[in-house]
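Table S2 (text version). Query chain:
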Amino acid sequence: MKTRILSVIAILVLSVAALQAQVDFGIVAGPNFQNMVGKDEGGDKVTNGLLIGFHAGVTASIPVAPDFYLQTGLLFSQKGSKNNLGILPVKAAGDYNTTTRISYIDLPIHLLFRPEFGNGHILVGFGPYVALGVGGSQKVDYGSGPGLEQKIKFKSDITTDEDWNLEYEFYKRFDAGADIFAGYELSMGLWFRLNAQLGLLDMLPNVEESDNESFLKNTGFSVSVGYNF
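Corresponding structure-token output:
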């Protein structure tokens, strides 16, 4: 019995060691060019301005077939937008601009095609991501005066009083969507990639006794520089 148990443990250890030997671990960082698109309270399309942020984290690529990998990792990523159309609850009369910056922890799950090309590899991939909001802030500029700095709070449902709260702005904590990317990896392990991301979930919380049609979804693109160890 003891021999069987030791044999099973030995097989598990060897399997884990073999898997670790095949997995490519790496680091990645780069700028984000993000936006939040959707509709306002009247159902009209909202056009916002790009917000420049950044992303950074670690990656892991697991081979599943010749030239194909399952790529995942954990990324700290800044998202948000700039706008002047009042998509968020109007807290003052007249024109105003907002700059919304929300920090997320992203978990991508991508299928990566990595064939040899020249002295390196072409990188083409796509797949879903899930994200968890961990913090953020929103600055409101009324055009005159000092403006307003608000903290981001994460809730899926809010009251009317919370909707008009001047200290906080509310968003849903969880996001999910799809990524697509293309790039090139040098023989030394350094790689470059252009990524496009489309959020699929509405980030605005539900407001009690409200029937407005507004919604916002994260979208944008980024440039990534990474290195595989």
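Notes on Table S2: The chain has one domain: 24-228. The helical segments are 2-22, 160-163.
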